[in-house]
């Protein structure tokens, strides 16, 4: 399956779903990856400065890591193509209008947006509004 590329189809079928739990971003040295895999990161990215991990908040706190503010993850259930154009911009625009910061992670099947935990319900509502036809 290659995923949906048509922007109107993507937006009509976003189906934003709030995942359970809170997540945080942290960074660790690249060479320490094996030490942190038991914390079950749901995302990681290698940068020149270090390895960024997205972890369940409780795991990161228990490990004593310096972490970001708590975030909630909203997964778009539509299988979006990595070649799709405009979906990220539309979602970011909807959240910008609500004054909600967004950290977008595109994976093979779905897009995921990490938003401040306190803004999660408003963010889901803003994203669901993208799927509703204009009245």
Summarize the structure in words:
This protein is an alpha+beta fold. It is 29% helix and 27% strand. The chain is built from 5 helices and 7 strands. The protein has a 4-stranded antiparallel sheet, with helices on one face. A hairpin with a 4-residue loop joins strand 6 and strand 7. Helix 4 crosses helix 5 (120-131). The chain is globular. It starts with 6 loop residues before the first helix and ends with a helix. The mean pLDDT is 91.
Name the descriptors:
135 residues, alpha+beta, three-stranded antiparallel beta sheet, ACT domain-containing protein
**Can you count the beta strands?**
7
Low-confidence stretches: none
Query: In which order are the strands of the major sheet placed?
Result: 1-5-7-6
Q: Any idea what the shape is?
A: globular
Domain DUF2241: 2-71
InterPro entries: ACT-like_dom_sf, DUF2241
Protein name: ACT domain-containing protein
Pfam families: ACT_3
Condensed summary:
This protein is α+β, with helices and mostly antiparallel strands and 135 residues long.
Topology record:
Blueprint: H1 7-12, E1 16-18, E2 23-28, H2 33-36, E3 43-47, E4 50-56, H3 57-62, E5 71-76, H4 87-97, E6 103-106, E7 111-116, H5 120-131
Antiparallel strand pairs: 1-5, 2-4, 3-4, 5-7, 6-7
Domain DUF2241: 2-71
Protein name: ACT domain-containing protein
């Amino acid at each position: 399956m290659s995923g949906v590329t048509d922007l109107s189809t993507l937006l009509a079928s976003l189906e934003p779903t709030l995942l359970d739990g809170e997540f945080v971003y942290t960074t660790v040295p690249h060479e320490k990856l094996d030490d942190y895999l038991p914390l079950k990161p749901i995302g990681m990215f290698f940068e020149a400065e270090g390895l960024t991990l997205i972890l369940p908040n409780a795991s990161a706190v228990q490990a004593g890591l310096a972490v970001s503010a708590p975030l909630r993850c909203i997964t778009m259930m539509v299988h979006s193509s990595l070649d799709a154009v405009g979906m990220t911009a539309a979602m970011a625009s909807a959240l910008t209008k609500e004054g909600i910061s967004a950290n977008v992670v595109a994976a093979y099947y779905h897009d995921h947006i990490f938003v401040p935990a306190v803004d999660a319900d408003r963010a889901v509502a803003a994203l669901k509004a993208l799927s509703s036809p204009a009245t």
